[in-house]
Amino acid sequence: MTNQETATSGNSGGEKVGFISLGCPKALVDSERILTQLRIEGYQITPHYEDAGVVIVNTCGFIDAAKEESLEAIGEAIRENGRVLVTGCMGRGEDAEAIRARHPKVLGISGPAAYEEVLGTVREVLPHRHQPDPLVDLIPAQGVKLTPRHYAYLKISEGCNHRCRFCIIPSIRGDLVSRPIGSVMDEAEGLARAGVRELLVVSQDTSAYGVDLKYQTDFWQGRPLKSNLYSLASALSELGIWIRLHYVYPYPHVDALIPMMAAGKLLPYIDMPLQHGAPSVLQRMKRPAAAEKTLDRIAQWRDLCPELTIRSTFIVGYPGETEAEFEALLEFIEAAQLDRVGCFQYSAVKGAEANSLPDPVPEQIKADRWQQFMALQQGISARKLQQKVGTVQTILIDNVSDEGATGRTPADAPEIDGVVHLPGVTEFQPGEWVEAEITAADDYDLWVS
Ligand code: SF4
């Protein structure tokens, strides 16, 4: 019943964490979940004690021999590194006391599946040098919340082959490095086994997945699969859980995913950062897919999958943005009728090429443009939400309290989109799917009364 493995994967940059996983497949799934979230938050996983800022030991308390092995592993980690967090089956009751008695220097002890606690302690003892930046990082600015255990982020690649002028990701994280599809699918399967009901596929450029690998064939469950987005989406759809795609660009090959969404295999949701609607600004930004006919493509997608939700982000006040270009952006927004939209006022990021562009837009004009943009988009988003009143939606329950529950429809990504309020509904558990008729909507959220 012992299965010792020391994690060996790593990404470029970020503080380093060592990880020792002991025990049964269930404990291994917990380890995968913690490792996944550490990677998502930008931590690097190292197999060397000397490199690690902290070492996590996921313990096994199944039989006495396993406990002894866990205690020895903790002792070795303390000797070799000194900064050790303990989690897993031995992290409760008498076993936890035994750990404290033998290894008083451990920095923290938590029980099995205590993801949030482990991540919280790692953030404390090994803080990031930088705060998450919504323009740079793949995670919400407040970090990843693990309290709802029924959704998880699945990172499929690191880095980016594009060179958008306002972005410093390629200089920090390098060119695109995709994970082989077998490794991504093993992780996804492990997360589904651990009770995850929704996977949020993230990367800097999800549509480019596998380009660097030349779409090489890899294996999952003995089956050959090409490392490309279509194969990945197809394989993920077999897991029987919600699959949500983030950071997809409107390239022609993305068209092939839409029938999968229409057939209910993937969530009918695309998070597509467009950044602007004026071709001249997109060219100055050096955006990928700038020349694609985005409005036509969106119209075709909606023909194939009318329930498709499109989320996007935009930048106003990019250097040189003229009044006519801003008007073109508003026209684009009006025509595209996107469901969920975020908007940032352009601000210089240290090291970005765009900093040296001429004709910076004055702050007041940026702020005015942002107000105009948001007023227009708020009306569009609110009208789209009103159209849901009277429809029956599948809702994934996120939280339940004495007052009621909140959840999300397929159109709502966690932490960035709206929620569904179900006042007085207390009989469900987080992670359950329910069907209910939407009875009201405001600018952001839906209600079931
Ligand atoms: S696509 Fe552009 S904005 Fe996105 S990570 Fe790559 S260079 Fe940065």
Description of the molecule:
The chain is of the alpha/beta class and 449 residues long. It folds into 3 domains: 5-125, Rossmann fold (3-Layer(aba) Sandwich); 151-386, pyruvate-formate lyase- activating enzyme (Alpha-Beta Horseshoe); 392-447, Nucleic acid-binding proteins (OB fold (Dihydrolipoamide Acetyltransferase, E2P)). Helices cover 32% and strands 21% of the residues. Helix 1 packs across helix 6 and helix 11 (323-336) runs parallel beside helix 12. The longest helix has 24 residues, at 363-386. Bound molecules: iron/sulfur cluster (SF4). Iron/sulfur cluster is lined by residues 160, 162-164, 167, 169-170, 204-205, 288.
Would you spell out the secondary-structure blueprint of this structure?
Elements: E1 5-6, E2 16-21, H1 25-40, E3 44-46, E4 54-59, H2 64-80, E5 84-88, H3 93-102, E6 108-109, H4 115-125, E7 151-155, E8 157-158, H5 169-173, E9 177-178, H6 181-193, E10 198-202, E11 217-220, E12 223-226, H7 229-237, E13 242-245, H8 258-262, E14 269-271, H9 279-285, H10 294-304, E15 309-316, H11 323-336, E16 340-345, H12 363-386, E17 392-400, E18 404-408, E19 420-423, E20 433-437, E21 440-441, E22 446-447
Parallel strand pairs: 2-3, 2-4, 4-5, 5-6, 7-10, 10-13, 14-15, 15-16, 19-22
Antiparallel strand pairs: 1-2, 8-9, 11-12, 17-18, 17-20, 18-19, 21-22
Helix pairs in contact: 1-6, 11-12
The chain binds iron/sulfur cluster.
The site of iron/sulfur cluster has 10 residues, from helix 5.
